[in-house]
Structure formats: C-alpha cells, structure tokens
C-alpha cells in the first residue's frame, strides 16, 4: 500500500520538476499546509503547497528506510 502523502522531515525526494539550477533532489525541511523544501544541489529553500508537492514526487529516498526493513 502506497502512502504518497506520508512525508517526513529530512526525507530526500526526487521531483518531476527541475529546479532552476538543474537539480531534482529536494530535502523536506518543514511540513504543513505548505511543504518547505531545500534543493540538494544549490541549497535554495522553496515552499510548495502540499497537494502540489506530493504530485510532483517521482521517487523518494527516505532516510528511515532501514528501520522499516528491520520490522
Ligand atoms: Zn537548486
């Protein structure tokens, strides 16, 4: 079961949208009605409405993957 809306602070996600610098990996740094996310390539912080953000996710590289495997 996929829970695309299940975001956590510190998650690294790959978005379908490229940043102006060419990077497409973003770190989630704040959750809310708007997601605050930082471009992993240039460090720029942007805010994207949550519903729009989850639609833009192409892949996720959650740092908590290991703990899920242990269970
Ligand atoms: Zn960037």
| pLDDT < 50 runs, ≥5 residues | 67-71
What is the H/E string? EEEEHEH
User: Structural class, from secondary structure content?
Assistant: alpha+beta
Beta percentage is 35-45%
Arrangement of strands in the largest sheet: 4-3-2-1-5
**How many independent structural domains?**
1
Number of DSSP helical runs: 2
Number of strand elements: 5
CATH level 1 class label: Mainly Beta
**What is the typical, i.e. mean, pLDDT?**
85
Gyration radius (Cα, Å) is 12 Å
Chemical compounds bound to the protein: zinc ion
Q: How far is it from the N-terminal to the C-terminal residue, by CA? A: 16 Å
For the report, how would you describe the main beta sheet?
5 strands, antiparallel
| CATH architecture assignment | Roll
Explain this structure to me?
- With 71 residues, the protein is of the alpha+beta class.
- It has a single domain, classed as SH3 type barrels, CATH 2.30.30.
- 18% of the residues lie in helices and 37% in strands.
- It contains two helices and five strands, in the order ββββαβα.
- The protein has a five-stranded antiparallel beta sheet, covered by helices on one side.
- A hairpin with a 5-residue loop joins β3 and β4.
- The longest helix has 7 residues.
- The chain starts with 11 loop residues before the first strand and ends with a helix.
- The C terminus is likely disordered.
- Bound molecules: zinc ion (ZN).
List the defining traits of the structure above.
about 70 residues, alpha+beta, SH3 type barrels, five-stranded antiparallel beta sheet, 2 helices, 5 strands, binds zinc ion
């Amino acid at each position: 079961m996929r829970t695309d809306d299940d975001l956590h602070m510190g998650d690294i996600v790959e978005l379908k949208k490229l940043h102006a610098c060419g990077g497409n990996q973003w770190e989630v740094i704040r959750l809310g009605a708007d997601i605050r996310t930082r471009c992993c390539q240039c460090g720029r912080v942007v805010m994207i409405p949550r519903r729009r953000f989850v639609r833009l996710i192409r892949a996720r590289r959650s740092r908590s993957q290991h703990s899920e495997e242990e269970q």
